[in-house]
Amino acid sequence: MLRLFCLLSLLPVFGQAQPDSLSETLVRRPASITAEIGGSAATSQQTPFWLRANRFGIVPITNPFGFVRFSSARTFSWGRKSWFSLDYGVEVVGTVSPSTAYQPARQVLLPEGYGRIRLDRFELVAGRRKQIIGIVDTLLTSGSYSNSGNALPIPQIRFGTTGFVSVPFTHDLLAFHAFFAHGWFGNADSVRNSFLHQKALYVRFGKSTWPVRLYGGLVHNAQWGGQATRPNWGIVSGGQLPSSVKDYWYVITSRQPDSIQTATYTEYDGLNRFGNHLGSWDFAAEITGRQATWLVYLQHPFEDKSGLIWLNAPDALYGLSWRSRSERGLRSRGFNLRRITLEYLDTRRESDRASTQALGGYDGNDDYFNNGQYADGWTYRYRTIGTPFLTPRSETTVVNYGGPGTFRKAIVNNRVQVMHVGLLAALFQQTTVRGLVSISKNYGRFGKSAQDGRGIWQSSLLLEISQPVSWLGGTRLKAAIAADKGVLLPDGVGSYLSLQKTW
């Protein structure tokens, strides 16, 4: 299906800078240590959407809750130009909140715990590391389509570039950013010990000093292998999903095997290229002027061939971001607007039945983030890995509700329209203000529509303030208020307060 992925996975790695001698002095940078304590309360038992969404799965879905967080990171580098370095990062979060079927009352989470080896512009990372994949405004976005930072990071080994690397002999006119990763989902309700396959390739046209730069790329994710918890399930052969090295090659290249069905795998495996595949095409243009930088971007989703050839258009995340470059504003003692982002997300088409018939009946009818074998779908620890606006059953009782372990598909609302606005500002030079406003219309799933296909409205808001204070020798006070109003989520207003100290 995705022959381009074969080329992507075999992409040669290029570098420009020549390493210095290994005899260069080791530089030990001081460790960065952060401690934070805080809590939240709301008028509804469910934590308001923007207090928990896109926060790497560490905020409980219920409240009131309290938390403590500790993180540390350090870098050891060699060479005058620091061409080689070793890094580590660790973050531990403890939370206390009302329990549900999806989360215990007390949790100790590890959103980060990794080691990294960097050689010039390339890195090898092992463990959990916070990351958002895709071209978006990461501070103000509604969520990058397939990897938004909404769920706890998945443990993985990843090799790739640390940013865009110039293609040799192009004088920085062409540059690329790429990575290849293997990860572990662990145990879930429907399949245990499944794997993550993930890779991406982005290309930049235009020198880094040019006022206009164009970007294009592809992200491919796959959930594969593992042991089904229902061994007699008709679409699983003996309970074991394909997990061999040969099967892995089909996952990487997204090719169908020569034999669609054998004694070791089912027709469902063969037709679906051994796993739950999904991803996005990413395109963007960046325009830099004297006073501001503009970013226009599009993320087009796919689950199979129909999405790759855009039969599910106009489904996509569309974005426009403005960022101030004015130095005068930084010196202002009043309100200083620094960034604005506008986004529109539409996922209603899903390569409908007409697209399915055009492709012989095997592709299309996408049912974003869901899968027949992996009933937990594109979720991790009951949180959506991609955009949080594709709602899992753990967050709503309105659309097709069913409890954990029922083998009903995890994402109960994946046909949505979302209008989203985000802004970032400085107040009196030291205070940071962030605001998010999202209005969505939610249609459930194909065949299981909300309100007989008319959809249900939902709005979510956030106002967040961060202010340095002199307490304890210098700390940062964070406060936020958020609200939900609509039908999909419980109506409620919530607040959040924390104190953070960094050494």
Provide the descriptors you would attach to this structure in a database record.
8% helix; two-stranded antiparallel sheet; Wzi_sf; mainly beta; Porin; signal; Capsule assembly Wzi family protein
Task: Give a quick rundown of the structure.
The protein has helices at residues 3-9, 49-52, 245-253, 267-271, 305-308, 327-330, 353-358, and strands at 26-28, 32-42, 65-78, 84-96, 106-119, 122-128, 156-161, 165-166, 174-187, 191-205, 212-224, 227-228, 276-288, 292-302, 316-324, 335-346, 379-380, 383-384, 391-392, 411-413, 416-427, 431-442, 444-445, 448-449, 456-469, 475-486, 492-502.
CATH class placement: Mainly Beta
Model regions low in confidence, pLDDT < 50 over at least 5 residues? 1-24
| Share of helical residues | under 10%
Q: How large a portion of the residues is in β-strands, by DSSP E?
A: over 45%
CATH architecture: Beta Barrel
Q: Total helix count?
A: 7
InterPro entries: Wzi_sf
Protein name: Capsule assembly Wzi family protein
Keywords: Signal
